């Protein structure tokens, strides 16, 4: 009776308030964290922590407050962040099978649909990854050696730099094209001229998609895909760019299908077409033209962006720290001279140069938050319970700048990778390629590329800033962390 009386006296505003409180209660109950779940900041009702920035600098503050394993909520999805060398190693290496799956990331899922290598899971991922790895290994040795491809491409890049005749220029797309040509030779069996407008368009679309996927709207897409699909914004550009990129790749695949000779496989696509015939009885392995398209996209995209941006960072550091550039050149001059091109066999004799390349990778911090991961089974980490299916972010930046692992984490210091006698020193906390079962598939190729491109460029040129335009040490955060656009002078030596 009393309750009925109370209800009768409620006006419109009170009804609204009551409804709102009820919704909040439902939200709290629905999003109640499991027992002993990693802690984290309180989230706004319904939205969670979508206003909390997830760049690696903001994450550092959250780590200081909540420890190396903490959580954030976006909408109703919970994300666990793992930071610092010890905890990342525990997750990826000591608990090898616990955090190896990819979650569904709506922004990419609408394009990839779980196919390819980088965003697939289970049996299909295992088969596709194994196949791509063995193909890269095959190209790594023998006559068609990857080293030879890289050496030839180094010469093309040096020629292009020379043609700039010591005038200011932005090396962005020349370097991207050069690095991309290595994986293109493996996948397509040919390289692209730096003046090729269709490949330039491909690289520009890819670059834009990677930068825009770090935008606020793209992150909102992951929380409210249904709503964001109908709203304009950079997330739409990401999708239209990928559609155009895929149609470029489709043309390459179709050309291969028309020219295919099973007795003379020229590249990854040719051997993949043969594999499709072998796997006719095993559809779950995914050897079909659609998966081929996404594997090709993964290899070209992953094989271009990170290595090219690392090399650009290395040039940015050489211009900011000319005394280090001079020391690298002195070592190259002493060990190799000017009469021949550097080869991989020179690496053990160039410890300072090798240390500078490693330090460029560490400070360049190209993939600060790794690729998204998901708990493959119920797991315990740092004393907290993480249920199967929880989205995981391994904060690789926190490993590369871990105060317990690096003498001067915030300073560009090649000494991090040198012992007291000046010999190259391996560091366990050097994890730019991540670790565990999902470790970068192209790690060996990337290391070869970085060494050969960097030493050949520094052997032939001195890099100087355009007066008044010192390249910034601050980068741009998208899916990767890349240098700001810069111009430079390449002075032949
Ligand atoms: C400096 C250069 C590079 C860096 C820093 C880098 C870094 C990474 C990182 C951090 C991951 C995520 C690993 C994880 O989820 O734990 C990854 C994955 C991957 N990388 Fe690289 N990468 C580089 C170059 C390359 C190259 C040259 C290729 C070409 C073959 C490549 C192909 C891939 C692929 C296919 C994956 C997905 C692997 C999977 O999901 O199983 N990467 N890379």
Automatic annotation (TrEMBL):
<dbReference type="GO" id="GO:0005506">
    <property type="term" value="F:iron ion binding"/>
</dbReference>
<dbReference type="GO" id="GO:0016712">
    <property type="term" value="F:oxidoreductase activity, acting on paired donors, with incorporation or reduction of molecular oxygen, reduced flavin or flavoprotein as one donor, and incorporation of one atom of oxygen"/>
</dbReference>
<keyword id="KW-0812">Transmembrane</keyword>
<keyword id="KW-0503">Monooxygenase</keyword>
<keyword id="KW-0560">Oxidoreductase</keyword>
<dbReference type="InterPro" id="IPR002401">
    <property type="entry name" value="Cyt_P450_E_grp-I"/>
</dbReference>
<dbReference type="GO" id="GO:0006082">
    <property type="term" value="P:organic acid metabolic process"/>
</dbReference>
<keyword id="KW-1133">Transmembrane helix</keyword>
<feature type="binding site" description="axial binding residue">
    <location>
        <position position="440"/>
    </location>
    <ligand>
        <name>heme</name>
    </ligand>
</feature>
<dbReference type="InterPro" id="IPR017972">
    <property type="entry name" value="Cyt_P450_CS"/>
</dbReference>
<keyword id="KW-0408">Iron</keyword>
<dbReference type="GO" id="GO:0020037">
    <property type="term" value="F:heme binding"/>
</dbReference>
<keyword id="KW-0349">Heme</keyword>
<dbReference type="InterPro" id="IPR008069">
    <property type="entry name" value="Cyt_P450_E_grp-I_CYP2D-like"/>
</dbReference>
<dbReference type="GO" id="GO:0016020">
    <property type="term" value="C:membrane"/>
</dbReference>
<dbReference type="InterPro" id="IPR001128">
    <property type="entry name" value="Cyt_P450"/>
</dbReference>
<comment type="similarity">
    <text>Belongs to the cytochrome P450 family.</text>
</comment>
<feature type="transmembrane region" description="Helical">
    <location>
        <begin position="12"/>
        <end position="33"/>
    </location>
</feature>
<dbReference type="InterPro" id="IPR050182">
    <property type="entry name" value="Cytochrome_P450_fam2"/>
</dbReference>
<dbReference type="InterPro" id="IPR036396">
    <property type="entry name" value="Cyt_P450_sf"/>
</dbReference>
<keyword id="KW-0472">Membrane</keyword>
<feature type="transmembrane region" description="Helical">
    <location>
        <begin position="104"/>
        <end position="125"/>
    </location>
</feature>
<dbReference type="GO" id="GO:0005737">
    <property type="term" value="C:cytoplasm"/>
</dbReference>
<dbReference type="GO" id="GO:0006805">
    <property type="term" value="P:xenobiotic metabolic process"/>
</dbReference>
<keyword id="KW-0479">Metal-binding</keyword>
<dbReference type="Pfam" id="PF00067">
    <property type="entry name" value="p450"/>
</dbReference>
<protein>
    <submittedName>
        <fullName>Cytochrome P450 2J2 isoform X1</fullName>
    </submittedName>
</protein>
